[in-house]
Automatic annotation (TrEMBL):
Gene3D superfamilies per the UniProt record, alphabetical: 2.40.30.170, 2.40.50.100, Helix hairpin bin (1.10.287.470)
InterPro entries found in the cross-reference section: BSH_CzcB-like, RND_pump_MFP
Transcription listed as a keyword: no
Lineage per the UniProt record: Bacteria, Pseudomonadati, Pseudomonadota, Gammaproteobacteria, Oceanospirillales
Coiled-coil residue windows: 109-191
NCBIfam families, sorted: RND_mfp
Native species: Marinomonas ostreistagni
Record keywords: Coiled coil
Family per record: Belongs to the membrane fusion protein (MFP) (TC 8.A.1) family.
Protein name, entry field: Efflux RND transporter periplasmic adaptor subunit
Domain CzcB-like barrel-sandwich hybrid: 77-217
Amino acid sequence: MKRFLPWITFGLALLCLLAAYLYVSSAMSAKNETFSRQRPTAQETALDVTVVTVEASDHAATIRAVGVAEPKQNLTLSSQVSGEVVSLNHAFEVGNQVRKGQVLVSLANTNLVSELASAENTLAAAQLTLKEEQRQAEQSNAEWQAAGLTGEPASDLVLREPQLAAAEAEVAAAKAALAEAKDNVQKLTIRAPFDAIVVSKDISLGSYLSSNTQVATLYSTDKVKIELELSSSDWQKLPSSDSMIKNQWPANITGVNEPQKKWQGYVDQAGMHIDSESGLRSLFVAVDQPLQQSPPLLPGSYVTVTLAGGLLADLWQLPNSALSQKSQIWYLTDEQRLANFDATPVFVDREYVYIKAPENLRQAPQRVLTHPYNSYLTGTLANPQESVSQ
């Protein structure tokens, strides 16, 4: 018995080792089976977003620019002759309106009046001399014919042709001198050359004016013009300049500091050159009879001019907030997931941004996010809520 005891002990140890191996193997298999079992997929949370439904359509661009209402004519009125100011029209005061041809200032200059009288006397004497020469020329011709002489006289002095020509020239010169003297005397009366506002009055009663002395500054009242400096992209949104001028393209005008003041104008002229430094080209808008408008449009006013451009096709009209800080437009796919594309506005106004719709999104209405954030990721599941402000 003792001889088999070591073998019995060895067999028992071997059975224990085998049992331990089988237990460990079973435990490891169970653990691996637990790990290999597929975990349930976590439910995806949809991102709440606000959207607006848009369709590609035609929209007219709006061009807005600021300018200054300037008079059609801005004249520094000067005296053309010298003289003493002897009378001033009561209407000739700063801020008043004067009519074309209205007398503003009367000057006195005895030398000019004397020159007029002398010119009249010179003309009368020249005309008398001419009549005497005409009579003598007629007499010379009669004597030549009575003498029965043939051919031409040896000298034209015989028929007094040079003397007659000289007398006629004297009359012509005297008439020109008289016209000049009359014109100078007429210039002693200074009149308004057009309907105008008196912007400055630079003389007073009793002052003596030399020729070319500044008398006043006048602004015409028949029309004001507003110069708008537009970029090439602005010009591309407008009809041709010839078409706008021909059709007097309408312009809505408001005061810069008083937007409640409104006027209606029209395109009157287009600049024919581009400023080499700024790259801008001028467009001129006019308002007729500005002081008769309600309220009056005063020269020198800063105004905002709004022009409607031509229709542009396949545009989305979106809230300004729809364009992200990265200049992207975010929209929802049919699977309710976020997508975006880079966008450059075709034009903008106070409320909306107008985006050229991508070709693959033009055929059906699209849902566009109204307030996209930079943290958004493409492919994110979204829960859209329609904007109530659209």
